Automatic annotation (TrEMBL):
Residues 1-21 are annotated as: Disordered. It comes from Collinsella stercoris DSM 13279. Pfam families: HTH_17. Residues 29-81 form the Helix-turn-helix domain. Residues 1-11 have a biased composition (Basic and acidic residues). This is Helix-turn-helix domain-containing protein. InterPro entries: HTH_17, Tn1545/Tn916_Xis.
Length: 84
């Protein structure tokens, strides 16, 4: 009985509510095109960030051709790319 009560209070994964790395409704990873749209920049510019040798945006490859970008990394990455 006590375990049932605890299960309702905390997520099964142990992640406290409100601390998930992306806002509700957004996936953890998005395609390059979706990341560009979320960031408000062009698709070609986002591909430049993906292919940057010096400072690539956090990403992972799925299969041979698909690249996914971590949604939570987009704001921090763009802040780093800003010019003063």
């Amino acid at each position: 009985m006590k375990e049932e009560h605890m299960a309702k209070d905390k997520p099964a994964s142990g992640i406290p509510p409100g601390s998930w790395p992306v806002p509700l409704g957004l996936p953890l990873y998005v395609t390059v095109e979706q990341a560009a749209k979320l960031a408000g920049i062009g698709r070609d510019r986002m591909y430049e960030y993906v292919n940057s040798r010096a400072d690539p945006i956090p990403q992972m490859r799925v299969g041979r051709a698909k690249t996914l970008i971590r949604t939570s990394a987009i704001p921090d990455y763009l802040r780093r790319r800003e010019t003063a």
